[in-house]
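INFO batch 0412 | record 1 of 1 | parsing
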Amino acid sequence: MQFPGTSSSARGQTLVIVAAAMVAVVGMVGLVVDVGMQWAGNRASQNGSDATAEAGAIVLMERMLGATTDDDDVLAAVNAAATLNGVNLEIVEYTDWEGTPLNAEVGAGAIPDGAQGVRVVGNRVHETVFARIVGVTELEVFTDAVAVTGPTEVCAPGAPCALLPVTVPTTVVTCDGQNRSVATDDEWPEDGEQVIPLCGNNPGSVGWIDWSPPGGGDSELAAQLCDPNPPYPIILPDWFNVTSTGNTNSAPIDDCFSSHIGDEIMIPLFEDTCRTDPGEATECTDPAPIGGQNQWYYFPRAASLLLTGVYISGTNPICDTGNGATSCITGIFIDTAIEGEVSGPWNPDDDALSQFFAVQLIR
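INFO prediction complete | emitting tokens
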């Protein structure tokens, strides 16, 4: 039956209009849903750019700490982080310590003077779900991040502030049956508490540092342990005539060292000793004698140690891990970088390595 004033043609036109409207509505709803999903994914994109910028800044920090890193190393770290976080790199450039671009791209061949940060502009592309109905197949988001590094004046409770006057080899050390140290080829692990034995007087043992040899003795060592304050900039890597080797048993030294338990301390690591100054060479041609004092020690880098125990005076069973050691310190090796505020520009001629470096995400 057909009502007056209607026709099958009119009904067909109405269905076409309704169908078109439904497509538009579904497309708009789909676009809203996809944009919402895009905003939800924006945080992941920003996190990826942040991590990528920080990866580059960490390499710059390692360079400040004495590592022989270059522009290729910064680029490799940035690319690896970007791949891991699914970020497509649009801009990667060096900045100064305040995050101001230096108009120098990462990967262009050289790290420019004053470079203390990395800026990353990245993007991530998301495929749409509903918006495809209206021809929108992809949505793209761009994120901008800047991470800088440099000396920090932040010294929160428990945070490392200066080098302690003690050094251990870059590799794990143990003691022999005569309480002399035995070096290994294994790097100190960062996956648990380590027992670091204090062996007897011989090159390669743990060394107590006298920053101004040959005088000083136990009283100076105890004072430096209580209030670490090297008298000159410590720029690594280099040779230093600073050390009296061996295990110094002294109550004041024990007390001052023990005051740092629970703190992150910083200590230089050595990989060679020498009777005389080797100058620019990194290997000794004049080995120091066993039991020698005031030897030259080669410090390639420093390390951070979460100090958990000090066992110096007397005989301490915890130190004997099958090597006959009676004295030791215990701790966990950790990263030398801390999250904090970069205090200013880095000058390798002025700034001592007795302070930690911070990595700061500023945008």
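INFO post-check: The chain has four helices and 17 strands.
INFO record closed
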